[in-house]
Specification:
This protein has 10 helices and 23 strands. With 437 residues, the chain is α+β, with helices and mostly antiparallel strands. Among the domains are: 132 residues, no CATH class; 153 residues, no CATH class.
Length: 437
């Protein structure tokens, strides 16, 4: 029953966050909270230092100061949108400045943690059942690695696995991040769709990567791991491994319904000769089990001759079976640790592989972070230098394949990588360089 004029006067004392919140109460409050006069005042006060400069410029910018000209012929909510655009643009500009310096070791921005803190970034998953009902899981545990972030969700009210159809992964950022305090759970924010997974027939349509006494693990690209309770056939936890490359872009720059797509790579002129093949590539490889690292190393000057191109792939040999000087030991017993609110465990013979392949000028060419598993290939090694069981780890996506061969040495209780080969899709290379292999 309060007159709109009185409400409008009350709203004029609110800040931007409060206005956005009060606009969610009902339609009347929404319309009043969109008032151009209130938002123009907020917009102008936020950019106060630049107002006198704008007045001295051309006709294109002189309409910003307070006055009738700035309010006429503007649709309701115009200055609210302008204010939000200015604020989000300022945050994005600061983020881009933070991620410019690169780590010479990995070729990736080395201020990723700081950039995430500045943006207030967090992640949520939304599971949709076959009836269309959505279940949002927010609270997550984070683990930061050299080139990736591991995010683990667990709760006590997962929807029944039999009715789950899809899982969506979102990056969530507050509309106006405040460095002095953590982001409010109920404050205005925006969601950016990172990936969508189809979980119908999960146990049949995904890769089983291991099990222990309590859970069975299933993997889907990109980087999703779902733990299922063995006895109840219900979800125990969900884990996602996200590579730093394009992580901020995909977590911030997309929309709630459409994933962000990176602009196409512009090839350097005369950068490569198809007759010569790839050359000067670098690989950073990280193998870990969430809580411990088994291998972290960089390999330089990788190349591929024309004779190494076959069946739609270019072969880059990182560790050769024949060259035992480059064979690599892994530290510790391989396994992937998991936890819920009650139980903890470790699934043996599986781990997370982080791969960062840089081209000859140091730009990220192929990057991923994904759970993988080891499979017993042969009970005895035929290698002269090693006696032990042979295991293999294989990974594949649309851009390439990774093939790893390991030998288990019983005497020293360690794995030795005796072969590591990358197979890069010719389609990926052709798109990157604008040439034909």
């Amino acid at each position: 029953s309060m007159p709109p004029e009185i409400l409008l006067k009350i709203f004029s004392y609110l800040d931007a966050l409060s206005l956005l919140s009060v606009g969610c109460v009902n339609k009347l409050f929404y319309d009043l909270a969109n008032d151009n006069g209130i938002w123009l005042k907020i917009y102008s006060s936020c950019l106060q230092p630049k107002r006198t400069i704008w007045k001295m410029k051309s006709e294109q910018t002189e309409a910003v100061p307070l006055g009738c000209a700035a309010l006429r012929d503007k649709k309701p909510g115009y200055w609210k949108k302008e204010y939000i655009l200015k604020q989000t643009a300022a945050v994005k500009t600061r983020l881009m400045q933070l991620v410019k310096p690169l780590d010479p070791y990995t070729g990736l921005p080395f201020k990723n943690k700081e950039a995430m803190k500045v943006s207030g970034l967090s992640w949520i998953i939304a599971l949709k059942d076959k009836n269309g009902k959505e279940h949002v899981i927010e609270k997550a545990n984070l683990s930061f690695k050299d080139t990736s972030v591991i995010i683990l969700w667990y709760c006590t009210n997962w929807p029944c696995l039999d009715v789950v159809s899809t899982l969506k992964l979102f990056g969530v950022t507050p509309l106006f991040p405040d460095q002095s305090k953590p982001p409010s759970k109920n404050g205005p924010h925006r969601c950016s769709l990172i990936a969508e997974y189809h979980l119908a027939n999960l146990t049949e349509g995904s890769v089983a990567v291991g099990a222990d006494k309590l859970v069975q693990l299933f993997s889907l690209n990109p980087g999703l791991l779902v733990g299922i309770w063995k006895e109840k056939n219900e979800i125990a936890f969900v884990m996602v491994s996200l590579h730093y490359h394009q992580l901020l872009e995909r977590s911030i720059l997309g929309s709630a319904t459409v994933q962000y797509a990176s602009p196409p790579h512009k090839p350097v002129l005369d950068d490569i000769d198809p007759e010569y093949g790839l050359h000067g590539y670098s690989l950073h490889l990280d193998m870990h089990g969430r809580s411990c690292t088994y291998l972290c190393g960089t390999f330089k000057n990788l190349f591929c001759r024309k004779g190494d191109i076959a069946n739609g792939y270019l072969r880059l040999t990182v560790v050769s079976l024949k060259d035992n000087r480059k064979h690599l030991p892994l530290t510790g017993t391989l396994g992937l640790s998991w936890e819920t609110d009650v139980f903890k465990g470790n699934v043996k013979d599986c781990y997370v592989m982080n791969l960062t392949l840089l081209d000859e000028i140091g730009k990220p060419f192929w990057c991923f972070s994904a759970p993988v598993y080891m499979e017993l290939s042969s009970k005895t090694s035929g290698l002269y230098d090693y006696m032990g069981h042979i295991y293999t780890t294989d990974y594949a996506d649309s851009e390439g394949k990774v093939c790893v061969k390991l030998v288990w040495l019983e005497e020293t209780k360690e794995y030795i990588i005796v072969s590591l080969v990358l197979y890069i899709s010719t389609k990926k290379v052709n798109n990157w360089y604008g040439t034909t292999y």
